[in-house]
Amino acid sequence: MLYDAVIVGGGPAGLSAAIYSSRARLKTLLIEKNGCGGQMTVTDLLENYPGFNGGINGFDLAVKLETQARDFGAEIVYDEVTGIKSGEVKEIVTVNSIYKAKAVIIAAGTRVKEMNIPGEAKFMGKGVSFCATCDAPFYRKKEALVVGGGDSAIQEAIYLAKFAKKVTILHRRNELRATKILQERMSSYPNISVMHDTVPKEIIGDDRIEKVIVTNLKTNQDKQLKIDGIFVFIGLIPNTLFVTDAAIDENGHIVTDEDMRTSVDGIFACGDIRKKRLRQVVTAASDGAQAAVSVGHYIDNL
Ligand code: NAP
């Protein structure tokens, strides 16, 4: 079977590409590793995605996008892509199979960045979490630490504060990176506080987390915080490990032009995995649409 387009990744970029590609009557296959939706499936409320005033749950939006793609005829398989061979016919190598396509759209997104401090690996999933939306209910009336100062950290801290007795945000600078609307909202939660200029150094405990040693970067002084759980939101790393020959930037993001073309003929990239300024669900969806239209033009000119 030769597909017109194989899409790698089923987040909002990949699903949007699948909708546009299958609606344009291109034979389309989307390969997703886990379940469709990507990072947005663990977002409680998307309130800036146009058309849903009052917001929409990330998982619910993912289900709508996946259904829309399937309705237009896109095939979706659950498998892990391990390599992409370029050439006139591209080979997409997965753990279980090899697929062939005229064009490939890489929409594999990002994964969470870990802190790499002592204790993090030991308590992974047992007190160290990367998803407040998933784990916050375990911290009812407990004390939690949130690491990071971006949109994810503040949004997830707000969600956590609905359950936890106390939420402390640890941020390495004296100014948060998060958008002002999230900072304003955070200030209405009396159980959230921010420790500036501070980073975590070590997580300590036997069966469960008992405390975290943190370092003030201005004074170089260490301090012990008694906490029950630590939520880490210190950024995202692009999933470009399997990409063989498309050019990437110094941070690992795939470099594309505004038509989502990579440096390799017939290979396109869209969404959070590509080098760009604004990473939002709406920009991922927009990228996906453009990538699919560019694939159509590419195939027409073959
Ligand atoms: P991010 O914007 O890259 O922020 C990461 C935060 O972690 C920054 O505050 C950074 O500090 C800090 N950090 C990085 N490395 C660290 C380290 N080694 N130790 C301690 N702190 C560290 O990541 P994100 O918040 O996950 O957001 C990712 C993208 O998704 C962004 O484009 C964001 O706008 C978007 N997003 C949007 C929404 C929304 O619109 N509601 C929600 C979530 C995410 P510095 O500030 O000093 O660099």
Short description:
By secondary structure, the chain is α/β, with parallel strands linked by helices. It contains six helices and 17 strands.
Task: Note down, in words, how this protein is organized.
This protein has 302 residues and is of the alpha/beta class. The protein has two domains: 2-112 and 236-300, FAD/NAD(P)-binding domain; 128-232, FAD/NAD(P)-binding domain (3-Layer(bba) Sandwich). Helices cover 23% and strands 28% of the residues. The protein has helices spanning 12-23, 58-71, 132-135, 151-161, 180-186, 281-300, and strands at 2-8, 28-32, 75-78, 81-85, 90-94, 98-106, 110-112, 128-129, 143-147, 166-170, 192-195, 198-205, 209-216, 222-226, 229-232, 236-238, 267-269. The strands form four sheets. Strands 1, 2, 3, 4, 5, 6 and 17 form a seven-stranded mixed sheet that branches. Strands 8-15-9-10-11 form a five-stranded parallel sheet, with helices on one face. It has a three-stranded antiparallel sheet with strand order 12-13-14, with no helix packed on it. Helix 2 links the parallel strand 2 (28-32) and strand 3. The longest helix has 20 residues, at 281-300. The two termini are 18 Å apart. 44% of the residues are buried. It binds NADP nicotinamide-adenine-dinucleotide phosphate. NADP nicotinamide-adenine-dinucleotide phosphate (NAP) is lined by residues 48, 147-153, 155, 172-173, 177, 199, 233-236, 279-280.
Features:
binds NADP nicotinamide-adenine-dinucleotide phosphate, FAD/NAD(P)-binding domain, 6 helices, 302 residues, elongated
